[in-house]
């Protein structure tokens, strides 16, 4: 017998009762002879029996075994028969201990140095469109740092005399006194899905698509700060953004976006300050543009008349094309979608109804439509978009599906409000080959096997 | 009573200028006036301290120079431990040097970039601008001591790297005066294009008007036959750990079992010493099994196996730092780690740094 887990109150020594909703391992070689015998003998394990019935496996079906009472109903359970914990027991609330599987993770072998690496968001467990701040993916170029906000400064200057009439310095006090806006946007790394350009390389949606997150950001429009400094907005055609961390990372920011008012100098994320891993106390928000341009720990912007060709826009974050040329200053994250449930590395708990659910987004605007196919792209039907659908923000789609237990290939295909349709792998590779690393927005396929196991595949 | 003196024409002109100047100041101060009391002018020294960027056209390049020979000394002390003696190392980062030829230097296009079978792209195969290398080394290198090199040292170490790539000769002195000459020899200087539609602006004349893919939203009978062309091979199943432990244990799906840890565990199984090593930042430079900036814990355990006072010795090195034990790069003192924690961590390392 497996040892049962306790109620799970921090510090509690109680160890009686069961984990609520416990279900046996996924249907992948998990039915040992003893398991089948145990079920057949009618041992009290309602959930397992229900699962067996749902999958239609083995000799034991619901019909052959008498239905027993659920001990979690008929027997006292500790959470109903004990005193709970007081308020502020955890002053900053944490997820349930039963949720500890859903965390940011690295992809083994992707990088060798943790300070120049990626930790992926667990999209496989996500609901809606908001990414909890603690699950926002991480990408650092030279480690993260936790800056004393009282000592953080933000500077605006020009690359030549006169480009900015009054170079200025702002404290966090200064910035947070200015009129702020709060907007929801997705933030996707340009290398998201980058491991899959040539072939399937990783098992789950956390690793295929987990370099995307979506948050509400609060800050002041960069345009306003440039105007306060007397910026020459006719001569200045590019803005350099620079971080205060060890790498002092720099990126060239498109002036049109700055002037549209979309680019923010932000301190807020999901109603609290930015997390240190995400740039505390200040970062740039560049909606629709790849994450590397959302410079974290932002300390300076410079107005200039030429792009800067920084390390991360001339050696990295350049897209290799089949002719040996690299595309430079590729910035927009084009229309893309992915089904998160069910997705690779999962097994469906049973036949019957499932709500296929996923995420769609476009760096050019709002998602207009998502279609879903369950036969590998032969036939498509429109999914329902959950409201609200916002510009340069994740959209959640749902699609009702009754799984009959047969092989299926699930795909989603997004269309944005410019009419751009998410491409197939074939279409993408015809233009860009397989070595680009960046900006892979191809339609994702998940193969559902008759046993219920789902895996990452690419179709011909 | 006397008449007021008539104003001289010159004085009138000055007065007019003053009025005009006041108007200009008022006009340019409009945005500031909207938010009085917020922000202050930056001083020249402040701007100089932070504005260290160097553009491809060399705007911002500081005066100075350094030789290949001087660069070699800097390299061996501060760069080789990560990048290898010849910039070729693949152990910590992707290689800096290799894959370029004299023909590339002549053409400005790296031929190996066209080869699908070429295994890896080095920095020198990609870098179009020598200015970018200068800018990046100056702002971000060495890895654990960014911005510690003098401008002359940056020129020197860049000269050494360019020499490894055979862009400059052994007796070369690189400086602000001849960066443009070196730019004309960068192997991939003609290797970049902005002929795409992914820049959200109008700054690049060669930009494409439309995205480069045009899928049609077909709804029925779209593909003749659907074949699986790529899937994960069986041997790769455990490569990302136990997927069952990476999924919620309720809901419509479970993670499949690809490992032997308990997906229902509710506590972090990593030992306290490992948590402490992570919190203290030790594992930014040390891997459990792989060399990062410093030696791996496996290598440390191997070297000190059977050494009687290893615990005292290494706990002392954690707290006080050490130099020259595992190469030229120094281990910085970790003053924030208490003696008790240092001993806890070292005991764990010497026990083979078990992850559970």
Provide the CATH architecture of one domain in chain B: Orthogonal Bundle
**Would you give the CATH topology of one domain in chain B?**
Cytochrome Bc1 Complex, Chain D, domain 2
Structural class estimated from helices and strands of chain B: mainly alpha
Task: Tell me the Rg of chain B in angstroms.
Answer: 30 Å
Q: What would the principal axes of the Cα set say about the shape of chain A? A: globular
Which pair of chains forms the biggest interface, and how many residues does each contribute?
A: A-B, 147 and 112 residues
How many strands, what sense, and barrel or not for the largest sheet of chain B? 2 strands, antiparallel
Describe, in short, the structure shown.
The complex is a heterodimer of chains A (460) and B (356). With 460 residues, chain A is of the alpha+beta class. Chain A is built from nine helices and 24 strands.
Characterization of this structure:
The complex is a heterodimer of chains A (460) and B (356). Chain A has 460 residues and is an alpha+beta fold. Chain A is built from 9 helices and 24 strands. Chain A folds into 2 domains: 114-327, Oxidoreductase, molybdopterin-binding domain (Sulfite Oxidase, Chain A, domain 2); 336-457, Immunoglobulin-like, CATH 2.60.40.650. Chain A starts with 32 loop residues before the first helix and ends with a strand. Chain B is mainly alpha-helical. Among the domains of chain B are: 65-183, Cytochrome c-like domain (Cytochrome Bc1 Complex, Chain D, domain 2); 272-350, Cytochrome Bc1 Complex, Chain D, domain 2. Chain B has 14 helices and 6 strands. Chain B is globular, with a radius of gyration of 30 Å. The N and C termini of chain B lie far apart (104 Å). At the A-B interface, strand 3, strand 4, helix 7, strand 7 and helix 8 of A face helix 2, strand 1, helix 3, helix 8 and strand 4 of B.
Topology:
The complex is a heterodimer of chains A (460) and B (356).
Chain A: H1 33-40, H2 46-55, H3 71-74, H4 78-81, E1 118-119, E2 138-139, E3 153-158, E4 168-171, H5 172-177, E5 181-188, H6 205-209, E6 212-221, H7 222-228, E7 238-243, E8 250-254, H8 255-259, E9 264-269, E10 272-273, E11 283-285, E12 298-304, E13 319-320, E14 326-327, E15 336-341, E16 346-348, E17 352-361, E18 367-373, E19 381-382, E20 384-385, E21 395-403, E22 408-416, H9 425-432, E23 445-448, E24 454-459
Parallel strand pairs in A: 3-12
Antiparallel strand pairs in A: 1-2, 3-4, 5-6, 6-9, 7-8, 7-12, 9-10, 9-11, 13-14, 15-17, 17-21, 18-19, 18-22, 20-21, 22-23, 23-24
Chain B: H1 9-28, H2 30-34, E1 40-41, H3 44-50, E2 65-67, H4 68-78, H5 80-83, H6 102-107, H7 123-126, H8 130-140, H9 151-164, E3 173-175, H10 179-183, E4 192-193, E5 228-231, E6 253-255, H11 272-279, H12 297-303, H13 310-320, H14 339-350
Antiparallel strand pairs in B: 2-3
């Amino acid at each position: 017998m497996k040892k049962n887990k306790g109620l799970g109150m921090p510090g509690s020594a109680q160890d009686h009762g069961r984990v609520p909703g416990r279900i046996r391992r996924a249907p992948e070689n998990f039915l040992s002879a003893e398991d089948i015998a145990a079920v057949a003998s009618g041992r009290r394990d309602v959930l397992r029996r229900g699962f067996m019935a749902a999958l239609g496996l083995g000799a034991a079906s619901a019909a052959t075994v008498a239905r027993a009472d659920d001990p979690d109903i008929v027997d006292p359970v500790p959470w109903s028969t004990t005193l709970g914990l007081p308020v502020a027991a955890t002053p900053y609330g944490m997820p349930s201990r039963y949720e500890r599987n859903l965390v940011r993770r690295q992809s083994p072998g992707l990088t060798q140095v943790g300070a120049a690496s990626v930790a992926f968001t667990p999209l496989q467990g996500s609901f809606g469109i908001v990414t909890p701040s603690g699950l926002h993916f991480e990408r650092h170029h030279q480690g993260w740092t936790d800056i004393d906000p009282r000592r953080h400064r933000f500077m605006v200057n020009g690359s030549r005399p006169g480009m900015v009439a009054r170079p200025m310095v702002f404290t966090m006090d200064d910035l947070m006194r200015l009129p702020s806006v709060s907007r929801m946007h997705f933030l996707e790394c340009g290398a998201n899905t980058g491991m899959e350009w040539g072939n399937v390389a990783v098992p789950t949606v956390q690793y295929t698509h987990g370099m995307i997150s979506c948050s509400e950001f609060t800050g002041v429009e960069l345009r306003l700060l440039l105007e306060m400094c007397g910026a020459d907005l006719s001569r200045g055609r590019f803005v350099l953004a620079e971080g205060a961390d060890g790498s002092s990372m720099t990126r060239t920011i498109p002036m049109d976006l700055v002037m549209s008012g979309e680019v923010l100098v932000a301190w807020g994320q999901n109603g609290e300050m930015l997390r240190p891993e995400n740039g505390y106390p200040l970062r740039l928000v560049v909606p629709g543009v790849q994450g590397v341009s959302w410079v974290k720990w932002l300390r300076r912007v410079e107005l200039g008349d030429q792009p800067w060709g920084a390390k991360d826009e001339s050696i990295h974050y350049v897209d290799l094309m089949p002719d040996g040329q690299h595309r430079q200053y590729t910035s927009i994250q084009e229309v893309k979608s992915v089904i998160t449930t069910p997705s690779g590395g999962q097994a469906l708990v049973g036949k019957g109804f499932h709500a296929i659910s996923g995420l769609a987004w476009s760096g050019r605007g709002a998602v207009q439509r998502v279609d879903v196919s369950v036969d590998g792209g032969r036939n498509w039907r429109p999914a329902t978009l959950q409201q609200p659908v916002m510009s340069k923000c994740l959209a959640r789609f749902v699609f009702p599906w009754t799984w009959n237990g047969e092989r299926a290939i699930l795909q989603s295909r997004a269309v944005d409000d410019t009419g751009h349709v998410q491409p197939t792998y074939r279409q993408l590779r015809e233009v860009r080959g397989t070595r680009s690393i960046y900006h892979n927005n191809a339609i994702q396929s998940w193969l559902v096997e008759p046993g219920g196991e789902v895996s990452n595949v690419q179709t011909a | 009573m006397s008449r007021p003196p008539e104003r001289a024409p010159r004085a009138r002109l000055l007065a007019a200028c003053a009025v005009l100047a006041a108007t200009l100041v008022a006009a340019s101060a409009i945005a500031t006036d909207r938010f009085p009391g917020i922000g202050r002018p930056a001083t020249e020294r402040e701007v100089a301290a932070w504005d260290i960027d160097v553009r491809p056209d060399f705007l911002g390049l500081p005066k100075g120079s350094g030789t290949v020979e001087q660069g070699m000394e800097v390299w061996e002390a501060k760069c080789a431990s990560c990048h290898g003696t010849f910039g070729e190392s693949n152990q910590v980062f992707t290689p800096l040097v290799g894959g370029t030829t004299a023909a590339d230097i002549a053409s400005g296009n790296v031929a190996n970039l066209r080869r699908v079978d070429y295994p890896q792209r080095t920095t020198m195969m990609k870098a179009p601008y020598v200015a970018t290398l200068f800018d990046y080394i100056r702002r971000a290198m060495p890895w654990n001591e960014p911005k510690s090199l003098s401008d002359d040292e940056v020129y020197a170490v860049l000269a050494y790297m360019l020499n490894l790539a055979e862009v400059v000769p052994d007796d070369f002195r690189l400086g602000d005066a001849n960066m443009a000459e070196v730019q004309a020899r960068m192997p991939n200087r003609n290797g970049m294009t902005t002929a795409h539609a992914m820049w959200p602006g109008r700054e690049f004349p060669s930009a494409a008007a439309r995205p480069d893919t045009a899928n049609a939203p077909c709804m029925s009978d779209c593909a003749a036959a659907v074949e699986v062309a790529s899937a994960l091979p069986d041997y790769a199943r455990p490569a990302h750990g136990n997927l069952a432990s990476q999924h919620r244990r309720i809901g419509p799906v479970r993670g499949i079992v690809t490992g032997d840890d308990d997906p229902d565990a509710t506590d972090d199984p990593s030992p306290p010493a490992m948590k402490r090593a992570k919190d203290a930042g030790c594992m930014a430079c040390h891997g459990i099994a792989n060399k990062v900036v410093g030696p791996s814990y496996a290598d440390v355990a191997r070297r000190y196996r059977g050494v009687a006072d290893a615990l005292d010795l290494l706990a002392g090195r954690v707290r006080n730092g050490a130099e020259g034990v595992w190469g030229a790069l120094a281990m910085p003192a970790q003053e924030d780690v208490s003696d008790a924690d240092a001993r806890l961590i070292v005991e764990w390392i010497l026990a083979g740094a078990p992850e559970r």
